[in-house]
Amino acid sequence: MKKALSAAVGVALGCSIQPVVVHAKNVDYKATIEAIGISSNAETVKGTVFMDRNRNGAMESSERGIKNVLVSNGRDVVKTNKHGYYELPAFEGMTLFITKPAGYDIPVDEDNIPQFFYHHLPEGSPELRFGGLQPTGPLPEAINFPIVRSKNKKHDDDDEYDDKKGKRNSDKRFKMIIIGDTQPYSNNEVGYVRDTLAKEFAAMDMDDVEGIIVEGDVLGDDLGLYPRFKQILGVADTPQYYVPGNHDLDFDAATDENSFDTFKREWGPAYYSFDIGDVHFVTLDNVQYPCINHDGEHAFCDASNTYNGYVTEQQMEWLANDLAHVPMDKLVVLNMHIPIISFVDSGSNKHQTDNAGDIYRLLEGRPALALSGHTHTLEHFEPGEGARPGIAGLDIPATPFPQIITGAGCGSWWSGDFDDDGVPMSYQRLGAKRGFMVFEFDGNSFKDSFKATGEPDEKQIAVSMLTPTFVDWYGQLLDWLRAGADGIPPVNINDLEDNMIIPVDELYGTTLTANVWNGSSATKVWVEIDEGDKIEMVRSENTLDPFALEKQMYVFRFAAESTSGNPRTQGFELWTGATHGPSSPRPSDEWMHTDNSNHLWEVALPSDLENGVHTAKVTAKDKHGRKYHETVVFEIRDQRPEPFARNYLFD
C-alpha cells in the first residue's frame, strides 16, 4: 500500500518525488527514500527513521524505527522517539534532513552522493539560469528515512542508536579525504579533475575511507557542468559530501535564500551534520550572497553584486540546537568554504568569516577543528594564532582550536604550464602543489596529511636556493609586469642562470629555502649539509619561494598559436573565458605568485663552504612526530660556468 501511495504522490507532485535508486558505502545496498501522501497540515512535517532490513527503502510492518536519531528542518533539531518517529515545524524553503548516526550508512545515489534530505519548496525556485529547484508541491504526509547498519561492523541485535552507550555502534578509527576548491570553469578543466583527483581515487584503497568532503567551489560558475563532474568523481567508491562555495552560486538569484538552489538540487542541503565514530562533522554555508552591509562597515557590499563571509542567524540557531545533542567529548569538525581566518588574505574583509567570535563561543569547551577552502592555499592555525583585529567590520579573536585551509584540488585555478600528464602544474599561491588532504581519525583525535596529485605520498617538501641572481631575475620580470607587461619581457627563463650553482661572491646573501607544503608553526625543520650537524631552519612568512616562482614567473602557454582558425585556442583561457595571450611567455598574475608563505623555512648557507659539490638533506618533523625528507645537490664555484654549448671549440 505504501508503495502505491508513494507512486501516487510522485504523480501528484510532478517530478519532485520520484523514486531515487541509491546504494550506501555498502555498495550492495540499494533503496529509495520514502515520501508518502499529501499532508493535511502544512505547518508540521513528520515521519520515521527506520532500519531498512530488506533494503527496499519502504518501511515495512516488520521494520522498526530507530530512536535518538537527529532530524532537522534547518533550524529546529529533534531526536526520534523510541519508535523512530519525529515531528518538526514545517515552512517553505526548508530542507529536512537527518544527521547520519555513527555506525550506520545512509543511501547514496549512483554517483555516491548521500541521500538524507528532502527539499520543501512548493513553487520551486524563481527563474534561474541553471534551473534551481523544481516545484516540490504540497508537503507529504510522511517523509521516512531508511538507513542500514554499516557493513562489516559488529552490533547488538536491537535496532536503536544510543549516543550515551559508549558509542557502541561506531568505528573509532577511519579516514576522510578533504579537497579544497576543484573549481573547473570548462569541460577542458573538468578533464583535469578526471586526470588528477579521479585518477588518484580510482587507484586508492578506499576500504578505510569513510567519505570525501569537497570544501566548496566545486565548479567555477558554470553549474551546468555538475552532471559530468559528478560522474567523474563518482569513481571514488565512497560517499561524497559537498560544501557550497562562492563559485557554486546562482548569481542571478535575487536573495540569499535562493542563491544555492542549483547546488541544493545536485548535492543536498547547504548546511547539515553527520556522525562517524567519535567525530561530529558539520557543514556550513558561510557565503552570503548578495552581500549585505549589515553593520554599515562593509562598503564593498554596496558597490556590486558580491559575496561576504558570514554564517546566517538561522544557521547559527540550527548549529546551537544541533550541538545541544552532541556529547561534549566528541570532536566537532566544521567544514565551510570561506575560512574563519586566513593568512594570505588577512587584509581582506570578505575572505574571512565575520561572526567568527559567535562560532568560537558555540564550541567553547569542546574538541574542535575547522576546515575550509577558498584561498587556494594550505594554511594551518594552531590554537592561539590567527587573530585579525583592525579590519573594517571585523575583529576576529585568536582561534581556540586548530584551523586548516585545505588547499585546492585545482591549485591556482588550473594555471601554469603543462606537466608530464598534460595537466597544468598550477602551484598554489603559497607554493604547495595542487592536491588533497587525508585525515586519519582515532576517537576524537586526528592526524592530517597532504597528498600532491601525481606525486608519491612521501613527497612533501620543495627545496631551492634563493640567490641574489634569482632575486634580480624575479625583480626584472615583476617590474615589467607591474608596468603593463607590454611587448617582450626583459628576461626569460633561459636568462635565469643555474640556481643550484652559487658563486663564491653570492655565498653571502644566499639562503636555502624549504617549502613544507603541509607545515605549520608546530613543524620543526632542519638541514644537514654534507651529512654534517643539524642546522635549524627558520619559518619565514616574507621570503620568496624560488622553486614555485620559477614556474609562476614564466608561463609558455601564453605563446600558443596556430592557423586552426579557432580564436579560443590562441594563448589559453582561465576562469570564465578570460583570455591569456597569444603573446610572449610571461608571468602569471601577481596575486598568484609565491612571494610569501606561512609554510616556508629558510637558512643562510654556511659562509665557509668549499668549492665543489655539496648535498643538503632537509627534514621536516610535523606535530604528529612524522618526518619527511628532501635532498638536493648544489655546487659552490668561483663563478658560474658558461651555461650554453661551447660551439667555438668545434669551429
Estimate the mean pLDDT confidence.
90
CATH class of the largest domain: Alpha Beta
State the separation between the terminal residues, measured CA to CA: 95 Å
| Main structural class | alpha+beta
CATH architecture of the largest domain: 4-Layer Sandwich
Q: Treating each run of at least 4 consecutive H or I residues as one helix, how many helices?
A: 10
In what range is the share of β-strand residues? 25-35%
Globally, the shape reads elongated
- CATH fold name of the largest domain, please? Purple Acid Phosphatase, chain A, domain 2
| Number of domains as seen in the coordinates | 3
Low-confidence stretches: 1-24, 153-161, 163-170
Strand order of the largest sheet: 15-16-19-20-22-21
